[in-house]
Every structure is written in structure tokens, then in C-alpha cells.
Amino acid sequence: MVAKEKLDMLPYYNKALELYKQRQFNEAKAYFKKCLEFVPNDGPAQLYMDRCDIFMKTPPPENWDGVFVMTTK
Fold first, then answer.
1. Which residues touch 55 (CB under 8 Å, ≥6 apart)?
2. ∠ CA(30), CA(33), CA(34), 5° rounding?
3. Is there a contact between 52 and 33 (Cβ–Cβ < 8 Å)?
4. Among 11, 34, 42, 65, which residue is least crowded by beta carbons within 10 Å?
5. Does residue 67 have a pLDDT over 90?
6. Alpha helical stretches, state H, 1-73
7. What letter does residue 60 receive in the DSSP assignment?
8. What pLDDT was estimated at residue 70?
């Protein structure tokens, strides 16, 4: 069974992922932040918010396929 908070969060998370894949990182971050209002310790939402911050500072290449490539260990 899935907790009500996660079900309520799901539409925001899906929209956030869609925006992320469209390279709209500022907007995506806002939706991921909204997700954390429903589930404060949601690891994936926090991870994607951090990645949005990185991509807002250093955008991915034009041929980016949505995959995040770690550059440090």
C-alpha cells in the first residue's frame, strides 16, 4: 500500500520530471520542491533538485539525453 502523501505528491513529481527532461531546470526545481512539502525526506526529489542546481549553473550539452553523468567520486 502506498502512503497518501506519496500519492498526492505523484502529479507534481511527474510534472517535475517532464520539465527536467525538457531542460527547464528552474521550473522543475520548483515542482521537486513542492514534492518535498508532501514527503519531506523524499530522496529522489532532493536529488533532482540538486541536479537542477548543477544544470542551472552549467547546462548540459545540446544533445543531452536526460542522463546525469557524475564528474567526481
1. 23, 25
2. 90
3. no
4. 65
5. no
6. 4-21, 25-38, 43-57
7. P
8. 65
Length of the chain in terms of residues written: 73
In terms of C-beta density within 10 A (0-12 exposed, 13-18 middle, 19 or more buried), how is residue 13 classed?
Answer: buried
Buried b (16+ CB within 10 A) or exposed e, 20-30: beeeebebbbb
The CA angle 8-48-52, to the nearest 5 degrees, is 125
d(CA 70, CA 46): 16
Q: Which sequence spans correspond to the domains of the chain?
A: 4-57
Q: Please state, rounded to an integer, the average pLDDT across all residues of the chain.
A: 90
Cβ-in-10-Å burial (0-12, 13-18, 19+) of 65 comes to exposed
Phi-psi region of 66 (alpha: psi -120 to 50; beta: other; left: phi over 0): left
